[in-house]
TrEMBL record, chain B:
Residues 317-384 form the NADH-rubredoxin oxidoreductase C-terminal domain. Residues 623-758 form the Nitrite/sulphite reductase 4Fe-4S domain. The lineage of its organism: Bacteria, Bacillati, Bacillota, Bacilli, Bacillales. Binds 1 siroheme per subunit. Residues 415-463, 480-529 form the BFD-like [2Fe-2S]-binding domain. The keyword Protein biosynthesis does not apply. Keywords: 4Fe-4S, FAD, Flavoprotein, Heme, Iron, Iron-sulfur, Metal-binding, Nitrate assimilation, Oxidoreductase. This is Nitrite reductase large subunit. GO terms for biological process: nitrate assimilation. Its cofactor is FAD; siroheme; [4Fe-4S] cluster.
């Protein structure tokens, strides 16, 4: 075969032409193959690996499971039940998320389970729960987006992170919607906006308060809506009386005119939607920032109506479903609470265990590593997750993983975290794994498997059942298919907030997805929430007082004079374990980089495309600089998909949001210097 | 399934556009029949004034040729009027007593001029301005008579007036209102237009209601209600049009002013649709072309069962050129107490603009003289976009597309990052495929097809391409040389397809214009034929014998190969013994970091080669130059060993291989970049234990900095990447194409995609090694790398 490059009108394609046989001419579009590259990659683990003398050695499933079983038992005997922990993922199916929660509580009887969604969605989830009484990613369907008149995109870079849903926003723009973006950086998303509030990182609470104050002072609120459906206006007014607009302007770096315009447009148009994402959520006051923006919906009556509502843009494939069914430290399936007596009773019956044997509430994702570092957690099972890149204060996480007695990783590849594992089990990729996912809207869909499992890889749920059996718990984990697990999940969620009882595989195959809550088989699902009432007991929403208590935040100082904020690049996903393996995605970004304003760079004597050391109070990394006029002069940006000395989360502090336990990824004070 | 019968009444702009859309949506859905009352082919009424003014011929304004109807198997009856619709039997009857069955019927009968019901309106010399006959009549009258009166100061009237003026008549425009075009223009714009038209020779009688037209047989005078009168030899009635809905009315189809239709252009009778000027939707009858086109599109989609949201009415906007003056209007035109306006008035250039706002939204606009922002303003009005005061002020600032950042992009700079579509690719697509909308660009190039973030940039680029200032052209692919019309890509392809083995075959089979070619194509052919299934010898840069340079007057030169510039005592001894055998030999250190033996006589060559007993360095043009390392660089104390080792290994693998163009490699073992790696075709710098690989640099006259290809953790990985890169360059670059040119053509991302794919990269490496094997099998002594 002779390879020839051919430049077509659209893009360069790579085609193979048979030198001796011209009829074999054909094109091969590299881009079209991207999605599958990681699933069929040659470095994919296809059989269990056990670490012996520091090297991973191939093993049989029997050997691997035997080792896991005996080590788990030994650890719990030596250090107590809660010494074992489970670290879950928002990328697994609902069935696996559900089973993982049950596995931790029933098979391991440990209270320590949490998942990477904690580092992702928890502030939005907590805020929605506090303000509305329920947390579903979108209160409306995506189909309503094109019809809305004004959209606030707060800390979300949809164009680069979730390009698949971008057309809904473009369509809205085409239809005349006014789009306001809140982001310290100019991105492809802010390019779409009519107004870009380029605020200082971490100043979102002050921004939300300023907007609310302007709306209330100008009398632009929807008084009827507030009277009938919202609690807490007086407290909010009282608090806002003490909020100084000038101070907000100084804190946010956004001009009064822009704040006024935002408040005006948002309250004056007949419909409006607010979307938030990690930019405002991954803050030590992320919950308050989201609630501050939800306040705007509540006072202007823009929720529970057509073309009006809230959406938290999810980062992971099953970020929504993953947080509903018990992977979280304080939750049981169907958004039930592990500390709630009635909820405990209901779930123990479904699981066939004594309520008194159900463990209580554990700690959040990052805090598990603190416990590990302290020596109270000595074993962990990590499911399809790479906490060694995604957590804050990675130096501590690394130390913790070095200390842990026994670590099991279930993954497709040997990730940075799996390197520390004692046993690695080969998981299934999305192409091979049947199961349900719940998308950003709260729409449950069924994903059928399209490829057989490679080598000796097993389904994620099967692996959990296997380990449970090893621990003598097989009768509680008798599942033969994902659907059998879903059937149990339906029952477990019945009557809960995220009620899946009316959803079956058959309905999902017929109906193209169903939005929860769906309490009955005859129920068509819930497309729009809060049309009549909110989910708090009295049916009303709660207006929040935010920014009253000063949160411990990263501040600039002469020693650390710049803000660092983090984010994604379009070509990569999460910690890059999957996408860095794809040649064409890697081709787009070969490494991490530091986006910096040229003026700032000159001040710190950093040349363009030069290796730069970035140092915070927590650590140090080295990445190449990249000049950009699109970023604030007091801020630098580094994407988080890369590991090793490019791992930006090494710099992030261990401070957490008091409500959601979310780390403050999006703002760190740093200093920079040329590495040469 | 048998095709359904679709009958269209009306062969005008609406009918023809509708049929075009039907064919686009589903060309197999219907058997189509069209009736047209006029005996000509359907023509663009919009362009009639242009015919009248002598700017176009009738042939030029014909909508579709006879051949088009034939090709699409459309049955066309011209000069035949449908007189009756039998909706019970689903058939139409015509003026020639033809009766035709339909399954679906579309009425597109348009409108007729409104003839004022005044006495004398039937006199000779009173005509309307609607058909091509009217134009002909006016043209002939103009030859015999002098004075023309046009009744109606709207768009149509002014166009007729201008035409008559051009035909040499004295023209008076009579208008019932105080200002012309008052439905489209405000007072200011109207009076500016009037002044301009007066300057051109028109005169106006405003606020005049016609009472009577007098004359014997032929018109002589026009009398007004106020008792005044004027003399006229020709009266053109241009006081509006009436929808042609008589046929519908007598067939029991509901009418008001026009034929009543719903959002899918359906009338009250099943399977009968109405579109265009004869139709009334939501209380509106449209007389402009855009609404008509929108309706045609929606009706066609509906009839082909394609999804459509239906017709929701059109915002009235007018964008016209009246007697050489651009005017635009949209939405509300006249100020009220609730509106606020922003004006721009430039008397010097004759430009006037006004935008009306109600609170935060633009509700109307009028522009005179400069209407470039029309489309933008119309969109703002249509979409009820929220505007800040700043936005409002900005609306009147005309944006010059040449000021847009994309205008200054280089051709290879990407516009769409998702699908890596460069500026050049878009320009090329626009120019070669004649694209005119973002949507078309998206379809052809995929730009803005994924996340859509680049839509504004694509739009700006398109506006720039369409602007007058744009004079760039996407580089046309050049033919190899004047001996052929084939481009290099086509040539390579043809060589493969026809399995051609030598230059003679190529010239014969591919119809070379010259018998023996020229130096340009001979060298190129030599290279391509060598690369495509050629012998090993062709892929290498020559046998040992060829490596002895004989071009210099003072004798031959020999360069013993010292890989990586490193020599053993053994090798030096060999060189010394060879030199000792040749009296008068000169020994010099070349800029290539090698020892040169100079000034050999012809007969001394073989003894020298024999005594040396080591490989010689190639002297032909297009191969790898000796690899530059940072050995001897004194600016730092860093260890240089790694670059020497890499150079030695790479030189051994790469020497003697043919390249499209000579290739320079620089290897630096430390960040001080002693080998100038960033200005080489391929450069490596070892920093922090990692290997940064740069490509496409050049230290030639057009010096340029290399781009970072990748950062590798191991020296071995870096070497594999380099070898893969070189092979891909060899296989896909054009002859004499520099690495940077090649890179610009392919794109850095594409090159990475290929090389980062382990399968492809390994294939590339093994093919390079095969070529290398072949060279080694030549009857010369195989060199071995120095090994420590």
């Amino acid at each position: 075969m002779q390879l020839i490059e051919q430049k077509a009108v659209t893009s360069t394609t790579y085609k193979t032409v048979g030198v001796d046989n011209p009829t074999t001419e054909g094109r091969l579009c590299i881009k079209g193959m991207n999605a599958h590259q990681h699933a069929i990659h040659r470095e994919r683990i296809k059989q269990p690996l056990i670490k012996k003398d520091g090297e991973f050695v191939a093993a049989t499933w029997e050997e691997a499971l035997e080792v896991i079983g005996s080590r788990f038992k030994a650890i719990q005997k030596e250090d107590g039940r809660d010494a074992l922990s489970v670290y879950g993922s928002g990328s697994v199916t609902n069935e696996v998320a559900y089973l993982l929660g049950k596995f931790a509580r029933v098979a391991l009887k440990t209270k320590h389970i949490d998942y990477n969604g904690r580092l992702c969605m928890s502030s939005a989830a907590t805020a929605a729960n506090q303000s509305f009484g329920i947390d579903r990613g979108f209160t409306n369907t995506l189909q309503e987006v094109p019809g809305t008149r004004v959209i606030i995109l707060a800390g979300t870079n949809i164009a680069e992170c979730q390009p698949t849903i971008m057309p809904y926003f473009e369509k809205a723009k085409e239809n005349g919607a006014y789009i306001i973006a809140i982001d310290p950086r100019e991105t492809l998303t802010t390019d779409l906006a009519d107004l870009h509030l380029k605020n200082k990182p971490g100043s979102d609470v002050a921004l939300a308060n300023a907007l609310l104050k302007i709306i209330l002072e100008e009398g632009w609120m929807d008084e009827d809506f507030i009277r009938e459906r919202v609690n807490g206006l007086e407290e909010a007014m009282e608090h806002l009386a003490g909020v100084d607009l000038e101070e907000c302007i100084a804190k946010t770096g956004v001009s009064y005119e822009q704040l006024y315009q935002t408040a005006h447009v948002f309250s004056q148009e007949e419909s409006g939607m607010i979307f938030t994402a990690r930019g405002i959520e991954q803050q030590t006051d992320g919950t308050e920032a989201v609630r501050g923006l939800l306040n705007l919906l509540l006072v202007t009556g823009k929720i529970g109506k057509p073309y009006s509502g809230y959406g938290a843009i999810t980062g992971q494939g099953n970020g929504q479903g993953g947080r509903e069914h018990g992977q979280k430290a304080d939750q049981l399936p169907g958004y039930r609470l592990i500390e709630d007596k009635e909820d405990r009773q209901y779930i123990s019956e479904i699981w066939g265990v004594d309520e008194r044997d159900l463990p209580g509430k554990g700690v959040s994702a990052y805090e598990m590593f603190e416990k590990m570092n302290e020596g109270t957690i000595t074993g962990m099972l990590v499911m399809c997750s790479n906490p060694l890149l995604s957590n804050p204060n990675l130096n501590l996480v690394k130390e913790a993983l070095q200390k842990v007695k026994f670590l099991v990783a279930v993954d497709l590849f040997i990730s940075e975290t799996a390197e520390y594992a004692d046993v690695i089990l080969p998981a299934s990729s999305y192409l091979e794994n049947e199961g349900t996912m719940t998308n950003v809207e709260g729409r449950v869909t069924l994903r059928e498997a399209s490829r057989p499992l490679p080598g000796e890889a097993r389904h994620d749920w099967k692996i959990l059942c296997n380990i449970a059996k090893e621990l003598g718990q097989w009768e509680k984990f008798p599942f033969k298919s994902a659907e059998e697990i879903f059937e149990e999940l339906r029952l477990a969620s019945k009557g809960g907030k995220a009620d899946y009882y009316g959803i079956t595989y058959q309905r999902l195959r017929e109906e193209q997805g169903i939005l929860w809550p769906c309490p009955e088989l005859s129920h068509e699902g819930t497309k729009r929430l809060f049309t009549d009432r909110f989910a708090h007991e009295d049916g009303k929403a709660k207006l929040a007082v935010v920014g009253k208590t000063k949160r411990d935040k990263e501040m600039l100082s002469p020693e650390f004079p710049l803000y660092l904020t983090t984010g994604r690049v379009m070509a990569h996903y999460l910690t890059g374990v999957q996408t860095r393996k794809s040649s064409s995605l890697a081709a787009r970004n070969i490494e991490a980089y530091m986006e910096i304003h040229p003026d700032t760079a000159k001040k710190f004597h950093i040349k363009d495309q030069e290796l730069t050391s970035i140092q915070s109070r927590n650590g140090r990394i080295t990445v190449r600089s990249s000049y950009s006029e699109k970023i604030r002069k007091d801020t630098v940006f580094v994407p988080f998909h890369w590991g090793g000395d490019q791992s930006v989360n090494r710099l992030v502090s261990d401070r957490l949001d008091p409500f959601s336990r979310m780390p403050g990824f999006k703002v760190t004070a740093v200093r920079i210097s040329s590495d040469l | 399934m048998t095709k359904q019968k679709l009958v269209v009444i009306g062969n005008g702009m609406a009918g023809v556009r509708f049929v075009q859309r039907i064919l686009e949506q589903d060309s197999k859905a219907y058997d189509i029949t069209i009736f047209g009352s006029e005996k000509h082919a359907g023509y663009s009424r919009l362009m009639l004034s242009s015919v009248l003014q002598g700017e176009s011929s009738f042939e030029e304004i014909i909508l579709q040729t006879k051949e088009w109807y034939e090709e699409n198997q459309i049955e066309l009856f011209t000069g035949e009027t449908v007189t009756e619709i039998d909706s019970q039997q689903k058939a139409v009857c015509t003026s020639t007593d033809r009766r035709i069955h339909y399954d679906k019927l579309v009425i597109a009968t348009g409108s007729s001029p409104f003839i004022l019901p005044v006495k004398g309106a039937d006199k000779e010399g009173v005509i309307s301005f609607r058909t091509v006959e009217d134009c002909r009549e006016m043209t002939s009258v103009a030859k015999r008579f002098k004075k023309a009166a046009v009744i109606g100061g709207g768009v149509l009237g002014l166009e007729a007036a201008k035409g008559l003026l051009n035909l040499g008549m004295e023209v008076q425009v009579i208008h019932i209102s105080d200002s012309i075009m008052e439905r489209q223009l405000d007072q200011q714009a109207s009076s500016m237009l009037q002044q301009e038209l007066e300057r051109q020779g028109m005169s106006f009688l405003l606020g005049k209601a016609t009472k009577e037209i007098t004359g014997a047989d032929r018109v002589k005078e026009v009398h007004f209600q106020d008792g005044t009168k004027i003399a006229a030899d020709l009266v053109v009635m241009a006081a509006g049009v009436r929808p042609n809905c008589l046929l519908a009315e007598k067939s029991g189809i509901q009418n008001n002013r026009g034929i009543l239709v719903n959002d899918f252009l359906q009338t009250n009778i099943k399977d009968i649709y109405a579109i265009g000027e004869c139709a009334e939707h939501n209380g509106m009858v449209y007389g402009l072309v855009e609404p008509l086109y929108e309706q045609a599109e929606i009706a066609a989609k509906h009839l082909c069962k394609k999804p459509t949201e239906g017709y929701s009415g059109s915002v009235l906007s007018t964008h016209l050129k009246v007697s050489g003056v651009e005017v635009f209007s949209a939405g509300e035109i006249h100020s009220t107490p609730l509106t606020k306006a922003i004006h721009y008035f430039n008397e010097v250039e004759g430009v006037y603009k006004k935008i009306l706002f109600r609170e935060n939204k633009a509700v109307g606009a009028v522009m005179y003289g400069d209407t470039r922002d029309g489309a933008r303003l119309q969109e703002v009005i249509l979409k009820k976009k929220m505007l800040s005061d700043e936005d409002k002020a900005g609306l009147l600032k005309t944006r010059d597309p040449a000021d847009s950042p994309v205008a200054s992009y280089s051709f290879d700079q990407p516009i769409c990052h998702c699908n890596s579509v460069s500026k050049g690719a878009i320009i090329k697509a626009v120019q070669t495929d004649g694209l005119s909308t973002i949507k078309e660009i998206k379809k052809v190039t995929k730009a803005s097809g994924s996340c859509g973030g680049c839509r504004p940039a694509v739009g700006e680029l398109l506006a720039f391409i369409q602007s007058d200032t744009f004079d760039q052209h996407a580089a046309e692919e050049q033919a190899v040389c004047s001996c052929t019309d084939l481009t290099e890509d086509e040539l390579v392809h043809q060589i493969q397809v026809h399995n051609l083995r030598n230059a003679k075959q190529v010239r014969e089979k591919l119809s070379w214009k010259t018998e023996v070619g020229c130096p340009t194509c001979n060298l190129a052919l030599d290279y391509y034929l060598g690369m495509i299934g050629g012998s090993a010898e062709k892929k290498g840069s020559g046998s040992q014998h060829e490596k002895i340079n004989d071009s210099q007057e003072d004798g031959f030169t020999l360069i013993p190969q010292l890989y990586g510039g490193e020599a053993t005592v053994e090798q030096l001894k060999k060189i010394i013994s060879a030199a000792e055998k040749i009296p008068g030999v000169k020994i010099a250190l070349g800029s290539d970091q090698r020892i040169h033996l100079l000034g050999l006589k012809k007969e001394e060559r073989s003894i020298a080669v024999e005594t040396l007993d080591m490989p010689l360095r190639s002297l032909t043009d297009n191969s790898i130059e000796t690899i530059k390392t940072d050995v001897g660089n004194q600016i730092c104390q860093c260890d240089k060993q790694s670059s020497i080792e890499m150079a030695r290994r790479l030189e051994y693998i790469l020497e003697s291989l043919r390249m499209p163009y000579r290739l320079k490699i620089g290897l630096s073992s430390c960040m001080h970049n002693g080998a100038g790696s960033t200005t080489k075709d391929i450069g490596v710098i070892e920093i922090n234990g990692k290997w940064e690989v740069y490509i496409g640099g050049s230290s030639g006259r057009n010096a340029r900095k290399g781009q970072l290809l990748s950062v590798m953790h191991e020296a071995e990985q870096a070497e594999e990447l380099i070898v893969g890169f070189i092979q891909y360059y060899r296989e896909s670059a054009r002859f004499l194409e520099r690495t940077w040119e090649w890179m610009e053509r392919l794109g850095l991302v594409h090159i990475r995609e290929v090389l980062f794919d382990q399968e492809i990269c390994h294939q590339l490496i093994s093919r390079l090694l095969e070529d290398k094997e072949g060279i080694l099998k030549q009857p010369t002594k195989a060199p071995m790398p120095v090994d420590h």
